Every structure is written in C-alpha cells, then in structure tokens.
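Q: Study each token:
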Amino acid sequence: MQLEIRPDPAEVGRARQWARSRLAGLGITADEPVAETVILLVSELVTNAVVHTDRPSLLRLFLPDAAPGAMPPVRLEVADTSTRAPVPRCADDDATGGRGLALVDCLADRWGWNAEGTGKNIWCELDRSAPPSASRTAAYENGHCPYGGFAFEAV
C-alpha cells in the first residue's frame, strides 16, 4: 500500500488519516498499542520528507502475510528523490524542531535508510508482539541524547 505525498505541510495530516484507515483494513485496531505508535512514526517520517526535501515522496505501509496467530512487524517507508542522507540530531531546549529521527529511533524496533533509484528510502519497523524494549528507551532517560551533547524533550 502506498500514498503519494506532495511537498506541502498539509500532507502530514492526510498521511496520518490514510495510515489509520490502512491499519484498520489490516485488522490493527485503534486500541492496539502499535496503532498510535505507527501513526506517530508516519507523522515524523512524512514531516521530515516535506520539510527537508521540498519534493514529492511516497509513503508505504507493509504488513507481511503471516501464519494464523502470528503477528508480523509493521513496516513504514518514505521514499523521496533527494540524495541527502537523513542526519539524526538533537535539538536544544528552545528549538521547535529537530527531534523527528530521535523519536523514530526511540519508538521503532528498527530503522534505517538506503539509496533507492535517484533518491533514498527511510524505513522503520515495529514488532507487534513485543512491548517496547528497555534498551530502546534507556538511552533517552533523563534527556540523554545519543546523537551529540544536546538534550531533547518529547512533549
């Protein structure tokens, strides 16, 4: 499943709405813990594409087929035509942005990026069957930022 994203900030809300409807169609209910995390990750990745590339992008949502009772991971991808690599950074206390990839790193079980065609693909995965791991969140306790000397606060 995929959605074309225009380089317009209004597209972030449209992407969240689209992702909610796709999750429901895949049997992931709004009260399932992974659902709102997926929506937050969609918001962060699409916002990054809109703000930092100023080019159209493509949002993809994958839920692989699985055996009955299995809960495969949910995978999100945002592909764009910019060759600029994503650079995680931490914002200082007064900044109004700069926390997106730090949130992705904290919330996703895995994330990364790779070259794709003439641009790149930023992806993340969430395991549906496991609670958030302590190792994912431990680095962020007390405002510690693994990307440099700056602290960040998720509000």
